[in-house]
Structures are given as structure tokens and as C-alpha cells.
């Protein structure tokens, strides 16, 4: 079993051969060079890689943040468009607003306030630099958790992650996911390695404000561990403070006194048939989703029922996770976080860029490979498939519509499940693998 040791030795195996072995220095240097090369290359490659309009996911929260002090409604499209133009945004800087609807919560708008005072092009450059710097720091933090003997493997996984499309999307379209996940991982590192609770609380609090559905998974873990419960409450209070400030700004502004109804309208419009967040079988965007609703929608195309089915699945897996949760926070730390990361992406709306969260599972993956678990290769295969699949969207679509395959699989529902909506199934399998590993560790240490 791998545990978090005190001091700076990282995660070390309890097996004697792990403690006494001398790492291959050449392998270590080559792996470090590969990681640094990929980190440097892809940091600049992804900003130049044109996947639609660059930094498009930064537009709505940035402009909405400006509305907090400019006196406009961040959930009213005409006002958002006017404020974006006032900030220096050009026509070619954004796609149709229906593709990038303003649906970010008030807490996200408050978290981006410092950037909102900058001209749009300056703000997006700072945001890209911040995303890249925090992601690199989070990658180093995860690598440092590995025992020195196995640190090269962590570096190689980090290099693969930089190549992956979820990271590319976080960088290229300015998705707040990259910053939120990086801050959550840094809070974990600060809690366990440096014992700097104040900095950890701030990192997790800001992460909660940016992406509560992702950072909330870390918060759940900390709340369930008595050692960190006080700090978790402080982080939750900080995240709530961002939300309250945003609500007050919107409520007190005459231009946005109807922001609640406008916000609900924007969310409903984004989920309407054919819209960007539509999970129905007819949706052309659903292949980009990772939540279980897109699978249930194939068999029962009722949004309310599909959502309930996804919640039930998440509740079953989450209850299992609670039952086998270790007693101490250091025990099976990354197995626990890997499981909750996979579980948390199933019941709620998530897109492929949120798969960046799987980087938290890398130490657990290395642990399973070290211990030669029977399912270790299956976990590695599932992880590689999930992180690399967005690169091959065009291939999956061609396979789904291929005439020869259509004869072999005449049912359109099965073809869609096999070729374009399989990600939630693989996430579910991966969650079960980590739950099984947690259960074995708990029974072995009992």
C-alpha cells in the first residue's frame, strides 16, 4: 500500500524493495527531459492550435465579471455583447453567443474580477499564462507525491497528459477547468506536504468558486477526514463568500435585478434541442459530454428521467465509496481521490475538458502497477482511452456512420453507444476498478 509519508519523501511503498532500490538515474533524467519538453512544447502548441475560436470559454465569465462593476446584467445577451465590445473584443474574437451562453454562476464572475479590469486581449493573455503556470505547478506537485524510484513513470504520465485533448481544450479555449483543477491539486499538496493550511484553504476556496462541481469532490474528501475538516469548512466558507458577493452585486444593480430568471432562461436555452448542452440522441454535441445522462438519453429520451437515472447511478457509487473510505486521511489517499474523481463526473453535467481531473488518479495508477493488481492494465487502458479519445472525434463519427458497420450493428442506439457515447461507460468501469482496489486495501489492512 502507498501512503503519504511525513516530510519530503513523497509517496513510498511499504514493500522493502521499494525502500531500498536505487532509481535508474538515466531513466529519471530521460523521463524528466521528456516531461519538460512536452510541457514546454504543448504549452505553446495549444494556444496556436485553432480549435474554433480561441479562448472562447473565457468570454462569458470574463464579460460577466465586468458586468458586476459596469452595471450590466451578465445573463442578458444584448448587455453581454455590448460590454464585450466595450472591453475591446472584436467580432472574430467570439463565436455565436448561443454556442457560448453565459451560464457561469456568480461565484465564478467574482473570482475573475481582477482580470475584468484589463482590456480583453490583455486579460485573455494573462488567463492563458495563469492556466499554464498553475497546471505546470500542479503536475509537479503530483510528481512529487511519487516515490523517487517511480517518479519517472509519473513524469511520463504527465507528458502524456500535456499531449491529451482535455488539456489542449483547457488551454486553447480558456476553460476555467484547468485553473480550478490545478488549484485543487495544489491545495492537496499544501495540506499534505507543506502543512500550509492558509494557502491550501485559499487555493481550494478559489477553486470552489470557479468550478464547484469539480473542486467540490476534493472538499467532500476533506470534510470526511477529521484532521482536515476545519480547513475544509474554511474553504467552503471562502467559496460561499464569492457566491454571496456575486449575488449581492447582481441583486443590488438595477440592470440585473431579474438576473435569476435570466440565468434560468440561459441554462434552459443551452439545454434545448440542438443547443450546445443538449444531451439528447439527436444532439451533435453530446459526444463531447462525459456524464451518464447521455447514455440514459439513448434509451429513454426524457431529460428529467435521464437526470434522475444519472443521479441514482452516482448515489450508488458514492455510497459504496463512503462505506469503504479509509479511517485515516493518508491511507490510500490517491485511490480514494481517483475513485471520487471518476464517480463525480457521472451524475452531473461535464464535458471532455473536465477529464483533466483524471490527473489526480495518476499516483493511484502507478501504485496499482507497482503492486501488480490484476486490473491495473485495465485501469491504464481506460485512462488512456478517455484522455486520448477527443483527438479522434472525426474517426468515431465516421465509424458510427460507416455503411458496413451499420450492417453489423443495425441498431442506431447501439452504434451511438459504442462509437460516440462510450465515455461515461468507461468512467463507470474505471470508478469500479478504484473502488475494488480501495476495498482490497481496506480488507488487507483490517
Structural class: mainly alpha
Q: Given the structure, what is the number of helices?
A: 23
Q: Tell me roughly what share of residues is in helical segments.
A: 55-70%
Contiguous uncertain segments of 5+ residues: 5-23
Alpha-carbon distance between the two ends? 13 Å
Strand order of the largest sheet: 1-2
Order of helices and strands: EEHHHHHHHHHHHHHHHHHHHHHHH
Shape: globular
Number of strands: 2
Provide structural commentary.
With 446 residues, the chain is mainly α. It folds into two domains: 38-270, no CATH class; 280-446, no CATH class. 67% of the residues lie in helices and 1% in strands. It has 23 helices and two strands. It has helices at 16-20, 25-48, 56-70, 77-86, 106-111, 113-116, 120-145, 151-163, 165-172, 176-194, 197-210, 212-223, 229-252, 259-270, 293-299, 303-323, 333-344, 362-370, 376-388, 393-401, 403-408, 412-419, 423-445; strands at 2-4, 11-13. A two-stranded antiparallel ribbon has the order 1-2. Strand 1 and strand 2 form a beta hairpin. Helix 2 (25-48) packs across helix 9 and helix 11 (197-210) packs antiparallel against helix 12. The longest helix is centred in the first third of the chain and has 26 residues, at 120-145.
Outline:
By secondary structure, this protein is mainly alpha-helical. The protein is built from 23 helices and two strands.
Topology overview:
Blueprint: E1 2-4, E2 11-13, H1 16-20, H2 25-48, H3 56-70, H4 77-86, H5 106-111, H6 113-116, H7 120-145, H8 151-163, H9 165-172, H10 176-194, H11 197-210, H12 212-223, H13 229-252, H14 259-270, H15 293-299, H16 303-323, H17 333-344, H18 362-370, H19 376-388, H20 393-401, H21 403-408, H22 412-419, H23 423-445
Antiparallel strand pairs: 1-2
Helix pairs in contact: 2-8, 2-9, 3-4, 7-8, 7-10, 10-11, 11-12, 11-13, 12-13, 12-17, 15-16, 16-17, 17-18, 17-23, 19-23, 20-22
Amino acid at each position: 500500500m502507498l501512503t503519504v509519508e511525513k516530510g519530503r519523501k513523497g509517496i513510498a511503498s511499504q514493500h522493502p524493495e521499494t525502500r531500498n532500490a536505487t532509481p535508474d538515474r538515466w531513466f529519471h533524467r530521460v523521463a524528466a527531459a521528456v516531461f519538460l519538453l512536452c510541457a514546454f512544447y504543448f504549452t505553446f502548441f495549444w494556444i496556436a492550435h485553432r480549435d474554433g475560436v480561441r479562448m472562447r470559454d473565457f468570454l462569458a465569465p470574463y464579460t460577466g465579471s465586468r458586468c458586476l462593476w459596469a452595471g450590466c446584467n451578465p445573463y442578458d445577451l444584448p448587455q453581454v455583447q455590448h460590454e464585450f465590445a466595450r472591453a475591446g473584443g472584436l467580432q472574430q474574437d467570439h463565436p455565436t453567443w448561443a454556442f457560448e451562453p453565459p451560464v457561469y454562476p456568480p461565484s465564478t464572475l467574482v473570482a475573475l474580477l481582477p482580470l475584468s479590469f484589463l482590456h480583453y486581449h490583455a486579460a485573455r493573455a494573462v488567463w492563458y499564462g495563469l492556466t499554464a503556470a498553475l497546471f505546470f505547478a500542479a503536475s509537479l506537485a503530483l510528481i512529487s507525491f511519487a516515490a523517487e524510484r517511480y517518479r519517472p513513470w509519473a513524469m511520463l504520465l504527465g507528458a502524456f497528459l500535456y499531449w491529451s485533448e482535455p488539456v489542449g481544450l483547457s488551454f486553447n479555449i480558456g476553460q476555467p477547468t484547468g485553473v480550478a483543477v490545478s488549484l485543487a491539486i495544489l491545495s492537496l499538496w499544501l495540506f499534505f506536504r507543506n502543512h500550509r493550511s492558509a494557502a491550501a484553504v485559499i487555493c481550494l476556496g478559489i477553486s470552489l468558486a470557479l468550478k464547484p462541481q469539480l473542486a467540490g469532490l476534493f472538499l467532500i474528501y476533506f470534510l470526511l477526514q477529521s484532521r482536515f475538516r476545519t480547513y475544509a469548512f474554511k474553504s467552503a466558507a471562502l467559496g460561499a463568500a464569492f457566491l454571496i458577493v456575486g449575488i449581492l452585486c447582481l441583486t443590488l444593480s438595477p440592470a440585473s435585478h431579474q438576473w435569476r430568471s435570466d440565468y434560468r432562461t440561459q441554462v434552459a436555452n443551452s439545454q434545448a434541442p440542438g443547443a450546445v448542452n443538449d444531451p439528447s440522441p439527436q444532439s451533435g454535441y453530446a459526444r463531447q459530454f462525459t456524464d451518464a445522462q447521455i447514455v440514459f438519453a439513448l434509451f429513454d429520451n426524457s431529460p428529467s428521467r435521464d437526470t434522475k437515472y444519472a443521479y441514482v447511478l452516482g448515489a450508488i457509487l458514492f455510497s459504496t465509496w463512503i462505506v469503504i473510505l479509509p479511517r485515516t486521511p493518508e491511507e490510500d489517499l490517491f485511490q480514494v481521490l481517483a475513485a471520487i474523481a471518476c464517480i463525480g463526473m457521472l451524475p452531473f453535467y461535464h464535458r471532455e475538458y473536465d477529464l483533466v481531473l483524471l490527473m489526480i488518479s495518476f499516483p493511484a495508477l502507478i501504485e496499482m502497477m507497482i503492486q501488480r493488481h490484476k486490473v491495473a492494465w485495465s485501469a491504464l487502458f481506460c485512462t488512456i482511452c478517455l484522455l486520448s479519445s477527443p483527438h479522434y472525434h472525426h474517426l468515431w463519427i465516421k465509424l458510427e456512420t460507416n455503411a458496413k458497420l451499420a450492417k453489423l450493428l443495425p441498431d442506431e442506439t447501439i452504434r451511438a453507444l459504442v462509437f460516440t457515447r462510450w465515455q461515461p461507460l468507461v468512467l463507470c468501469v474505471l470508478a469500479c476498478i478504484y473502488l475494488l482496489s480501495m476495498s482490497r486495501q481496506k480488507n488487507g489492512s483490517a
